[in-house]
Each structure stands twice: as structure tokens, then as C-alpha cells.
Amino acid sequence: MRNTVNILGIPVDNVSMAEALNIVKGFLNEDRVHTVYTPNSEIMMAAQRDPELKEILCQADLLVPDGAGVVLASKINGCPLKERVAGFDLTNMLFSDDTSKNINYFFFGGKPGVAEEAYKNLLDRRININVVGIRNGYFTKDEEDEIIRQINNSNTDVLLVALGAPKQEKWIHENKKKLKVKLCIGVGGTLDVLSGRAKRAPVFFQKHGLEWLYRLYKEPWRFVRMMDLPRFILRVIANRIKPKRA
Ligand code: UDP
């Protein structure tokens, strides 16, 4: 039985990082495609405007709170989530786990060269995972069949999809039935960070739920999109104080 917390109609899994890792490892023992998404406040808010995205998130096999805002929302709702489970951390925990010796990974997404650099950096750090295929994230609709063929011919267990949100969630959902993998994770900018082309917020910002502030400083053009963060919290508060119909 899943332990979830409903946030604006989306069931977010109430799991610690260790529990999330165990669930993900469990997926690898089952013979079907599983989906894991890691929404932050922006995506949770985008899903309020986009019913298709909301349905995709609702259908995930595991939905973990990537952002401090999602954890805050659960507290406002009176059902606090155990902790923030960032997609970047979850992916890295899986890489470092003993089971990774027996897992084949496929890195799909990012600008040309990014996934290769990410893999090289992992190997340099002695994180000896098996990456059996790489494909950058810039493609036309016509190229999709070939990409799926490449993935299916590579004996992949875990497909990391780094197309940014919500593109990655929609791509996974649309192609899930055609994919012969055990697990698809939407990992956003994870490959950029692993490649060294992007930097994660310093630990202080991460610990204090201020990763958004660091990102705003580094990527000010995200301002408009980031307004979804306060919008999301306001929506959660409004929903909380709304008189319930008898
Ligand atoms: N990206 C991609 N194909 C696209 C759009 C984006 O591969 O058509 C990649 C982009 O290169 C980056 C990643 O998706 O590596 C995350 O993009 P972004 O930072 O915009 O998304 P977020 O981290 O906010 O989900």
C-alpha cells in the first residue's frame, strides 16, 4: 500500500530518501515499465493548469517531492511529508548502491555531449555504473522511433530522461508502452550538473529550502516561471482555508 499525501489533487509519496531508493530498487525486480517523477512547486503548479500533466503525475509509480515548496505545502495541508527527496540525490544514491553493478543505464537528454561528460565524470569519481546508451535530448518527431529502437536494443534497465519538465514526463508517458525498460525517471537538469556544466545550489541553500533563490540568482530569466512557486503556496493555503461543502 502506498503512503501518499494529496497536494492539490496530486498524490505525492510520503517516503524518506532511503525508502524511495528501496522502492526504486524493487521496481527493477518487476517485469514492467515503471515511472518515477520528481515534481517541484513549479511542476505541481503547472499541473494545475495542464490536466494532461496532472493525470501523468497521478499515474506515476513513484512521485517524490523534489522541492522544499512541495514539503511546505504538505505541512500547510496538515499532513507533512517525511522529507524532500530530490531527483538528483535519488539518482546518485541509486548509482552508488551495490545493485547498480547489475543495472544497465541509458542517459537520454541534455545538449549534445552533456551525457557523455556526465558519464565520464562518474567514472572518474569511481562510480562504475554501466551506461549502455546515450542520446542527446534534441530531436524531431521523425527521430523518435529511432531513439526508442536505440533504447530497446541496448538492454536498458533504467532510462534517465533529462528533457526538462514537463517535456520529460510527457515523453515518458507517451512512449511508455513502446519501451522495453524497467524504470524511467524524469531527471531534469541532473545530467547538466553531473557533467559540470551546471552547478547545484550550495548545501546551505539546499538545507534551508532556498535552492530556488540560488537558481534565480544564477538564471534570472527563470523569474516568470518561478512565480509559480508563490502561486503554488497561495493556492495550497486557499485550498486549505476554503470552507468544505457538507
Ligand atoms: N533539454 C533537452 N531537450 C529539450 C529541452 C531541454 O534535452 O528539448 C534538456 C536541457 O538541455 C537540460 C535539461 O533538459 O539539460 C533540463 O532543462 P531545464 O533546466 O530547462 O529543465 P528543469 O531542470 O527546469 O526541469
Automatic annotation (TrEMBL):
<dbReference type="InterPro" id="IPR034714">
    <property type="entry name" value="TagA_TarA"/>
</dbReference>
<comment type="function">
    <text>Catalyzes the conversion of GlcNAc-PP-undecaprenol into ManNAc-GlcNAc-PP-undecaprenol, the first committed lipid intermediate in the de novo synthesis of teichoic acid.</text>
</comment>
<dbReference type="InterPro" id="IPR004629">
    <property type="entry name" value="WecG_TagA_CpsF"/>
</dbReference>
<dbReference type="Pfam" id="PF03808">
    <property type="entry name" value="Glyco_tran_WecG"/>
</dbReference>
<keyword id="KW-0808">Transferase</keyword>
<comment type="pathway">
    <text>Cell wall biogenesis; teichoic acid biosynthesis.</text>
</comment>
<keyword id="KW-0961">Cell wall biogenesis/degradation</keyword>
<dbReference type="GO" id="GO:0019350">
    <property type="term" value="P:teichoic acid biosynthetic process"/>
</dbReference>
<protein>
    <recommendedName>
        <fullName>N-acetylglucosaminyldiphosphoundecaprenol N-acetyl-beta-D-mannosaminyltransferase</fullName>
        <ecNumber>2.4.1.187</ecNumber>
    </recommendedName>
</protein>
<dbReference type="GO" id="GO:0047244">
    <property type="term" value="F:N-acetylglucosaminyldiphosphoundecaprenol N-acetyl-beta-D-mannosaminyltransferase activity"/>
</dbReference>
<dbReference type="GO" id="GO:0071555">
    <property type="term" value="P:cell wall organization"/>
</dbReference>
<keyword id="KW-0777">Teichoic acid biosynthesis</keyword>
<keyword id="KW-0328">Glycosyltransferase</keyword>
<comment type="similarity">
    <text>Belongs to the glycosyltransferase 26 family. TagA/TarA subfamily.</text>
</comment>
